[in-house]
# Entry
Amino acid sequence: MRKPADERRLLVTALALHMGVVPAIRLLPYAWVGRGLRRVARFRTGRTRPAAASHAVSEAVRKTACLVPGRTCLSDALVGQCLLWRLGHQTALRIGVHASDEHAGRRFAAHAWLECDGATMIGASRVPYAPLVHADLES
# Structure
């Protein structure tokens, strides 16, 4: 069965953003990535109901993330944030840590996730990460 045009457009946009964000966060300063994503987010597409839009965005990010080599929880959160901004949503990008298993050779593990309207939309984890920073890309 063929997907509706809005869903196809969202999937293509999510994939394109993933393909740009993954190398950008490795090569460019974080502030530059933020400014670029803000520019992309100016092209708003508010045709979907707000509640349905946030669910559709998280599904599009999840479905397209597996197609992009080198993607991380941070890249997933940034892609989701940009897509939600385009739909007019306020978001909060969170970065947190938790103590890790010493036997794994790491003292802590880090994780990024995206919150929208008080709920975790992208990057939900069963491990309790302590938020370190609200990573605001507006500056």
Q: What stands out?
A: The longest strand covers residues 91-99.
